[in-house]
Amino acid sequence: MSRLSVLLLALLPGLLPAQQTLIPRYRAAELGDPAAQVEVGQYYVSQAHATSLARNLTEARDWYDRAAKQGYPVGMLRLAELHLRDEPEVRDPAEAFRWMDRLYETNHPESGCNAALARFYADGVPARDGRVAVAADPRKAYYHIILQQAAGSLPHDLGLLRADLRKRLSSADVKDVEDRAFRWVEDHNKPALRPDAELAAGEGSAKGSKQPDKDRKATTTDEPIDTSDKALALALKHQQESARQVTPLGKQQRYVLPGPARDKK
Predict the structure, then answer these.
(1) What's the domain count of the chain?
(2) 251: which DSSP letter?
(3) Is residue 37, in this structure, part of any structural domain at all?
(4) Nearest CA to 26 among 38, 13, 17?
(5) d(CA 15, CA 41)
(6) Which domain holds residue 87?
(7) Which is more confident, 164 or 259?
């Protein structure tokens, strides 16, 4: 192989255009699909890990924000998580708190929002300017710990925090918070009930459809059965009349009653 060929092979990767990685579902995201918007946001987060460019994180934030503002739970969660990162371009604990609180309000405990809110209320939430955005509140921290526990899992650090809060709070506060958490779980897990007006209307129609006993037709009787000759003869006559049938006469397509008239020509 000549020196020129070796040189061309060495320079070839730099001469070829860089391979373009297509952003997944970008078109659907542009059209407003929140699930696609989350996927595009995740693409930019992965690019941030690969390139360390802060611009990728701000792009991810914008896409997550678009999905979150449509009420998409995954978008809210991803946006809150992004605001808790250490990079100053996207870090905003107050915004993270706001979206976690939105997940709680819209009843998405599977997102882990209660665990996050418990930590927020335990330590307080600072704003970007250094002020306090949300003050620490042990009662609310304990409340969200109970809700997180009701969701089926409690991280180890929250278990320790729960024990500490039970010592710090009075027994009356503990009972009140636990009662509030119980009512919240009950209210958000009961099946939907019909409105009271509809129930009342249903009961009214049911009551209106009832008839007094005197208007009902009796289906049974306690009276003795008449077995006299006259009654038996009348019953036999009724049976014979019921047995009479209309029968066709061949191709004439005429119908006559059975009896002496049928034998006439």
Answers:
(1) 2
(2) G
(3) yes
(4) 38
(5) 31
(6) 21-91
(7) 164
